[in-house]
Amino acid sequence: MNGVPTVPVADVPADAPLLDVREPDEWAAGHAPTARLLPMSELIERIDELPDDDPLYVVCRSGGRSARVVAYLAAQGYPAVNVDGGMQAWSAQGRAVVADSGTPQIV
């Protein structure tokens, strides 16, 4: 999305807290170790659960949902940044991915 603050995966600090806006089944299949799950579908009703990280790195599967979330959060005054390429780019660059199920990580 144009005008959405975005950062490439390579520029996300290794220990950066991430807000993962995918759905629980996507999360369980594989997510960044430092991520917290808050599905986009639940964002409005759970907005008070947002961490106070500055910036707040937001990630999804490929970057589309997280870009929409960042646009919304930025309009609300949150210092959110979209992780370009999402978890697909994260995984492709060899960044750590963990799964809840013990099966191979799939993003």
From TrEMBL:
Source species, domain of life: Bacteria
CDD domains tied to this protein: RHOD (cd00158)
Gene3D superfamilies assigned: Rhodanese-like domain
UniProt cross-references to PROSITE patterns, sorted A to Z: RHODANESE_3
Pfam entry (one): Rhodanese
SUPFAM superfamilies for the chain: Rhodanese/Cell cycle control phosphatase (SSF52821)
Ranges for domain Rhodanese: 12-99
Matches recorded under InterPro entries: GlpE_sulfurtransferase, Rhodanese-like_dom, Rhodanese-like_dom_sf
PANTHER family the record matches: FAD-DEPENDENT OXIDOREDUCTASE, SULFURTRANSFERASE YTWF-RELATED
Protein name: Rhodanese-like domain-containing protein
